[in-house]
Description:
mainly alpha; 86% helix
Amino acid sequence: MDNSSASQSDMLDKVAVALSGLCLLHCLLMPVIITALPFFGQFSARHLHAEILTIVLPISLIALSIGFRRHADKRVVGWGIAGLLLLIVGATLAHNMYGVVADRMLAITGSVILAAAHYRNSRLSRSCRVATSSEYM
């Protein structure tokens, strides 16, 4: 794999980590905002997790697959998929069947796992790039 696709993978991993962080902030701060500002209470029934997934899913899947082609570590992909599944279940089934608390717990757990997977994916991809470039010297 050339360096341009490695740098694209690294960029996608960084974007995915940032999106996971934003998801985590959303989940942690939304209850505080709703409690502190009653005006926003009318929005509490609507959550953004399903909409955020339309951005997170493709970016994460692309970044993890590019990284996997580079480092071939199945554990990174496994953790990434586990994090995505928790996010999906939290945003859909858990929210509808068990309420906001279940949704938030799954979303927080999934976003932390997904961010860790992307961080590891990025680190492994960079170490492969360094090893590959030093082999040609």
